[in-house]
Specification:
single chain, alpha+beta, Four Helix Bundle (Hemerythrin (Met), subunit A), five-stranded antiparallel sheet, two-stranded antiparallel sheet, 7 strands
Length: 254
Amino acid sequence: MNAVNDKEFSKRSIQNIMDIFISPEVRRRRNAGELPKPLDLLAAQVILFPDERKSLVRINWEVRAIEKVKYKSGITKKKGDKIYDNEIEGIEDVKLGPGDDPDCGHIFLYRLGGGIFLYFDFRRDNALATQHVERAREFHHVTDYSLRKGNLAAFVDNAFSAAELSAKAVLLVMYDYKPSLRVKAKHAAIHARYNRFANLGNVMPEYKKTFNSLSELPEAARYLKRPLSITEEEAYRMLDVVGKMIEDAKSRIR
């Protein structure tokens, strides 16, 4: 998701990744006789699984990734040609390698030109998030039909479902990811976490406002615990905002 260019931030980020993931794995494998001493660290990769599995750390020759590189001036290549470090000016993008689960997040470090290139993409559960977005679109289509027919209770129920599915899709792929969100999250948990996420300025304020408003309406629309009070003008505004929430969620998925 990010190739880090700011020198000070990059230095701190690399040190944190080394401390948390790579150095402990290097020590463990050295003690087990699986890595040479000293180790010439050329590249490293951390695979972040979308479930409770421990992160997988790859060292040097174990790394497998698809890199989009920028060549130095005058260097051209054809498909299948070998690429050497001294021909590369920089790395523009990194994707998971063949055989890796596309729902994993990953971190990539590569020693290049006297420095270290860092790339990270913490987004996980991209396939599951995509399914949530597609289902949100289904509810949104029904919402539009219900509103045109004047069925406000059906509008509210479907609009809330579409908004909640969009909110969950965003949470699934974001940095504060928790595996429990995949299958166990209840309405209140999704609502609370999306609000925290929104309060940090990560989504448009109107998304949070509309989701909160819709969260309060099902007890009137579906459960008839109180009269349903919503104007047609408010409903059309919500319809528009929920549509934007769906597209926002889609744009965040890898």
